[in-house]
Amino acid sequence: MTTSGQLPISLKDTAERALKEIFSKQLKLSLEPAESSDETHDFKTFHASVSITGDRVKASVLLQISEALAAKATRILIGCEGQGEEIEDATGELCNMISGRIKSELTAAGFPGVLGTPIITFGSRIDLRGATGSDLCRTEWTCGTDQINLQILIQP
Amino acid sequence: MTLPKILSVDDSRTIRLMLKRVFRPFHCELFEAADGMEGLEAVITHQPDLIMLDYNMPVMDGVTMLRKMREHDNIKRTPVIMLTAEDSNEIISTVARLGVRDYIIKPFEDEILLSKVSRIINLERKPETDQPEAV
Q1: Is the Cβ of A90 closer than 8 Å to some Cβ of chain B?
Q2: Best residue of A85, A93, A105, A117 to probe chain B, by most B CBs closer than 10 Å
Q3: Contact by Cβ (8 Å): B72, B19
Q4: Using CA atoms, how far apart are residues A123 and A48, in angstroms rounded to an integer?
């Protein structure tokens, strides 16, 4: 889903490029696009969010992945089984990398900003909601049998 | 044999553990710091041969740490590779002026990182049967 604001770039394309680059280059995992459904809202996920803040932009990037995928990604990144905090930190680092790529495209489009520190929580799925005039993009993906949700919200 | 010493300065524990995994097959000593302030203390204490440095960190960011290092004669020439998700031209220009030797933007591939590190320090691979945890 994408709401229409004043950005000169497609947030959906930006989200796709960023997510695919990090998953292919850093994790060597491939992604397939998926449709949003009621089922995607039922599972518990890790939520990692990073802010991008500048004079002309105030954005939030939210990555939601299942516990199983977070554990798998952690194992790939650090080379051994991760425990609680390591899995949380790895999920935050993935979101940080994705946000870095998104920030780069926003900067190229004339909206420079700086990255915030990742915030990680766990629970039912969250859907970002923006005020009138905001740009919001929600994308759904699968990685094998695991679900991934990436959302970008640009506040007016 | 004197092992090359590498200092990883990053607030992300994941990145520090990733570097531990990447360097595990090689003879080297790996030290860690979670922000620029800790990093500065670690540089003075351990006198590393190479620093892998993040930009965005709490307490003290990577650029401030670089500026502080330049104030100390005994560490101001320590080679630094930036390893960061930050790719703004302004920051790249700033750290280049501060003498940073190379710049790696996350995500990174192990081979590229090792190639850049090998241009600065001599990384000798351990025999395949001899790869305990990195120091």
Answers
A1: yes
A2: A93
A3: no
A4: 11
Q: B83 with B54: CB under 8 angstroms?
A: yes
CA pair distance B36, B58, nearest whole angstrom? 8
Contact A142, A32 (CB under 8 A): yes
Q: Which residue has tokens 């990145």?
A: B15
What's the maximum distance between 2 C-alpha atoms anywhere in chain B?
A: 45
Q: How far apart are CA A48 and CA A113, in angstroms?
A: 19
ipTM score of complex: 0.86
CB contacts of A104 in chain B (<8 Å) are 87
Instruction: Tell me the pLDDT tens digit for each residue of B11-33.
Output: 999 999 999 999 999 999 999 99
Instruction: Give the Å distances, CA to CA, from A90 to A124, B77, B88.
Output: 19, 32, 24
CA A72 to centroid of chain Cα atoms: 17
pTM for the model: 0.89
**3-class state of residue A21 by DSSP:** helix
Checking DSSP bridges between strand A58-66 and strand A45-53, what pairing results, if any?
A: antiparallel
Q: Which residues of B touch A55 (CB under 8 A)?
A: none
For B:31-60, CB contacts with A below 8 A are 56, 58
CA distance A1 to A53: 23
Average pLDDT of the residues in A41-52: 86
**Alpha carbon distance B26, A138 (integer Å):** 43
Can you give the C-alpha Rg of chain A in angstroms? 15
Chain B residue numbers with beta carbons less than 8 Å from the beta carbon of A19 are none
Phi and psi at residue B29, in whole multiples of 5°?
A: -110, 130
